[in-house]
Amino acid sequence: MDCCKMSHKLPHHVSIHGGLYPSRVITVSGIVLKNAQRFYINLCTDSDIAFHFNPRFDENTVVRNTEIQGLWGTEERSLPFNMPFRQGYSFTVMITCQAECYSVSMDGKHLLDYAHRLKDLQSIVHLEVDGDLELNSVIV
After folding, report:
1. Of 6, 18, 124, 126, which has the fewest Cβ atoms less than 10 A away?
2. pLDDT for the residue 111
3. Mean of the pLDDT values across residues 61-80?
4. Whole-number Å distance between alpha carbons of 4 and 101
C-alpha cells in the first residue's frame, strides 16, 4: 500500500503494484478549487484508460468512460442525484474494484457502479489524478 498525505503537484501519477483485483480499494482525497471546471481520476494500463472518472462542474455531472487503443467508448453521464462535488469543498473518493465493476463512493456514500470494459484487471497498474483540485491524499 502506498500512502501519501500532503498536497501533491499535478498531474499526479502513482503505480498500482500488482494491478487491480476484486476487493482492492483506491482512495483519493482533496479539495475542489473554488473556480474548478473539471478534474479526473484515471485508472490506466500502460497504454489504455480502464476507468476515467471526471467530475465536470461546467456540465454539472460526473462523466465515466474507458479509452482502449486510443478510442473512447460511450460516456456514462447519468446520476440518480445532483452533482455530488462542490467547488471549494473537500472530498474523499473510494474506488473499490469488484469482480464485474468499479464501485465508487464519496465521503462514505455510494455514488455509482461502472462495469469493467477492460477485463484484464491485473494490467491496470497506474493511477493518474489531475485537474482543478488540491490533491491531499492518495492511498493505493
Report:
1. 6
2. 95
3. 96
4. 26
